[in-house]
Amino acid sequence: MSDLTVSRHFVQAALVGAENLGFDTRELLIEAGISPELLRIEMARVSSDQFSRLMQILWNRLDDEFMGMGPRRARSGTFATMCALVIDCPTLEAVYRQAYQFSRLFDPMVSMELVTNGDQAQLVTRIEGDILDPCYFLRESLLVIWHRLGSWLIGQPVELAKAEFDYPRPPHGDEYRHIFHCPLTFESSQTALTFDKRFLSAPVIRDKPEMRQFLKTSPADLLSRPDESNTFTGRIRALIGRDFSKPLPDFEWIAAEMHTSPQTLRRRLKQENTSFQEIKDLLRRDMAIYYLSRQELPINDIATKVGFTEPSTFHRAFKKWTGVTPGAYREGERGTLVG
Fold first, then answer.
1. Residue 117, class by beta-carbon neighbours within 10 Å (0-12 exposed, 13-18 middle, 19+ buried)?
2. Using CA atoms, how far apart are residues 179 and 182, in angstroms rounded to an integer?
């Protein structure tokens, strides 16, 4: 079971190109197991599995890994070919240089260029030509895929010092906190990710069989399922677990388990743009959404499962998270939402 969810915004943003090309987006959603009615709920979220399926359907149906948003098509298999090239690179620096050279073979170019300056390294977005990207989805995907691919290849997260964007903070800007886990700057002169140069010398630890396995669900999984095992947020989620029916561990216990002081852990969470309370709330929300998709579970049982002693408190909390009651949310999931 995947307990991560993806905002409705990203589902709709991913469909912009397909819609523009005349595809029946309702049909694509149903094929991915997403109820189109659910998307009428403004704060709805889908599971990372559903989002991953939608991405794969879009790439295959459009035969375009830019999903109809780029300055040209990137036929299916482009990303896999780039990965086959970089798997033989010795270090992360070589990976990013090789990937950029590969992307330059296509005209107009859509890529990220590695730029080093002192003890800092940057991946800077390079997009030539006109794009159809009103929701910034193509640009966000580019940053996320290149960053997470690099992290996967070296077997450790490339910790970001800064993420900057050459556009104003979008309405869904709050989601960026959980995507990039670092300070954010909008209306910058470039769209780029900054990190410590020491990561560039990290060796590539993956081999070809691992890459073949990785490509079966990639890059869809890179977008929908971040590897959070090495972020403080992800490690805390893992320590809390999924059983909310018994008392949750307190912050001091979590800090001790992670061999750090509560003060240091608080500071690290602040750097990752979150807090212990928010991690617990979002985990509860994601678990509640997961259980609501299992139609046989009574709503009062779900309230207990996610740690609420009173069903009324659960209803209030769920409405705060999603804008609707658990019952209305379930109707949307079923596709029987009226109004």
1. exposed
2. 9
- Give which of 153, 136, 40 is closest to 87, Cα–Cα: 153
Domains and CATH numbers, the chain: 5-224 (no CATH), 232-334 (1.10.10.60)
Q: State the Cα–Cα distance between residues 167 and 136, nearest whole angstrom.
A: 9
pLDDT tens for the chain, 339 residues long, are 456 889 999 999 999 999 999 999 999 999 999 999 999 999 999 988 899 999 999 999 999 999 999 999 999 999 999 999 999 999 999 999 999 999 999 999 999 999 999 999 999 999 999 999 999 999 999 999 999 999 999 998 899 999 999 999 999 998 898 888 888 999 999 999 999 999 999 999 999 999 999 898 888 888 876 656 667 888 898 888 888 888 889 999 999 999 999 999 999 888 888 899 998 998 898 889 888 888 889 999 999 999 898 999 999 999 999 989 999 999 888 875 544
Residue 240 gets the label, from left (phi > 0), alpha (psi -120 to 50) or beta, of alpha
Contact 82, 99 (CB under 8 A): yes
User: Could you tell me where the beta strands, DSSP code E, fall in the chain?
Assistant: 5-7, 45-47, 110-117, 120-127, 160-164, 184-185, 192-196
Provide DSSP, 64-113.
-TTTT-SSS---TTHHHHHHHHHTT-SBHHHHHHHHHHHHHTSSS-EEEE
Assign 122 to helix, strand or coil. Answer: strand
CA–centroid distance for 108 within its chain? 27
Tell me the two tokens of residue 237. Answer: 């989620």
